[in-house]
Records
---
Amino acid sequence: MDAFVYILTMLAVGAGVGIVSASLGIGGGTLMVPELLWLIPQMDINTAKGSRLFAIVFVSGYHAWRGRTAGVYSSWNIAARCAGGSWNVMLCCSSACWAAGRHGPFY
């Protein structure tokens, strides 16, 4: 019975975050990070942020595909440059953390 109540709670929180973010125009991920920490107390804040970003990849990809198939002009050249720049920054930052001895999930 506890699993059923837990799943209903997660669904209710997700629906509430969706309604609030849709009505106020706030990103759902901004509201979802504290809710993830509340629902799963042993979750680290970095894991909650990473879960939010992981979900954004699929939502953004879907909307880019949908806009492209609808004939909405989008510059994939600019998107590729932004993605490449993000990748380079991520590599530089992770290399600096590794060189400083701060590697691992809990450094």
---
Amino acid sequence: MALARAHIDADALDVIATIASKESETGIHAAVQAFGVSLIIVPERELVAANDRVETHSARVAAFAGVGSVAEAAALAATGPRSTLIVPRLTVGTATCALAATPPESAS
């Protein structure tokens, strides 16, 4: 659904990122298998460093993980310090995701 919202083909997805406490969730592993991508476990310090770039700020999530949105912060951390959100946090049922990308290098 997030890919469709961003008008992005599934083959453009490079990784799925999450935090250590969600690493064993079956839904995450099912998505990794379905998309044929790698799973990145974002270290807490990198998650927190990306927090100033998240768009969604949930007090409940902040109390749990120290960031406004785990999905957004994980996506941003996994794609690097120059990345931006393409699709902010999107929740469908019990699944939450966000999409981020790093802009291509500028031609010199």
---
Amino acid sequence: MKVAEKINKQVQRLPEQTQAEVLDFVEYLLTKTERVQAREEEQEWTQFSLASAMRGIEEETEPEYTEGDLEEPLVDALSRGSASGRRSRGTRPHRRATHLNSSYTPR
């Protein structure tokens, strides 16, 4: 006798409420199995995608960009003050320290 037949035979002996619990558990197991399969397929796809993206890189003899190419825009941005998050002078009016005044309420 196959396992499914044995399960069916035993479940038929249970009260209907308990059979419903068995059904819920079987559905849970099916959902869990489907999630595991989906996760495995996703991992296979990720590995395939990475392998495809990296194909041929080992044969490259010299880099496409030099270290100087990567540093040049940063040096230009720093000299302008934009990469450090500083504002250039004149973009925001200077406010006097009004917190010394007792009627001052901060925003």
